[in-house]
Sequence to fold (374 residues):
Amino acid sequence: MSRNQQDPPRLVESPYGALEEKAAQHVRENLTPLSFSPAQIREVERRLERAKENRTRMLSLLLPAGAAFAVAVAAFGVVGLWRLSAANHAQAALANRASVQSPTDPMAKASAEANTQRLDDGSIDSSTENDPVSIVTPDARVTIAKRSTAKTSVRSMHTEVAVYSGSGKITFVALNRTLDIGAGQKADQSGVSPIAQSHSEVTKVGSRTRPESTLGAESRFLQRALKKLREESDARGALRELAMYRAQFPAGELAVEADRISVDALLKADRKHDALVILDRLPLTDGIQNVAMTVLRGELRAEARRYGDARSDFSWANPKVSGSLAERALFGHAQASAKLGDEVTARADLSQYLTRFPEGRFASAAKSAISNGH
Fold:
């Protein structure tokens, strides 16, 4: 189509005119309004009434069923809540029974504790170190404190505890009574009393018997301790015998010897600190056994960083020892001097050590210390 020809008018652009008139004329000629007869109108009304009645009947049936369903749901909810509440109460009761200990029944609590033993008859020897021990018996609960030695016995449902060192405690359930037991004491339902001296042991002489002497009774304890330590390698058993010895003979004639055996047992039990406590109070003199104890004390004092005390021990022992003890004393003196800042003395000691013991136990360490400037 050329630009000079004119496009036909469109409805959205042209005003109401010939095209709209033509369309209106077409509608009037081809469409006729709908018309209903009276019978058709009544049929429509009748069907509307029937639909209304059906809807009302349906509602009348659904409402009771819905109400019954709602009641059932509510009932189930109530029962569920009741059961949940009952379960919670039961769980709370069980928790309370598990966590609350009745004062008349210590057995449940004792069974849950660590280091707890049960004793119904007979006896138990206890030698504790870093942790206490609990023992439950038919009529009592016993606690042996840490670093204590004791014996718990049960005869005819009655409990007795003897504490030889440290301390303990016994609670009699039926009596609701707790007794504290110190070293050298025993306790039963009648109360606390001292452990009897060991004069009841007897030795036979011909057909007669006589009480064993105090010295003989002391010796028997130490012999048992030495047997456990040297033949049975039972350091704890030896310490238990020695604790019983001290409880019965606090000022015994063999107390110093008992201390020496205790040092050996404590070292085997890897309790160096306790061994040093005993060595610090021992009266050490010129005897060879005392010299060896002095060298040992110097080594333990050096480990405890008591270098001045250690060097004094090594200085005292050096002229009195030979062999392995001399090696230990000389090398210990060198180390203590170095720790105290006395480099001249330390180097002299190390040189002397290598001269006397070129293949000795500490030769390699001595060479290394000298090469590092000591």
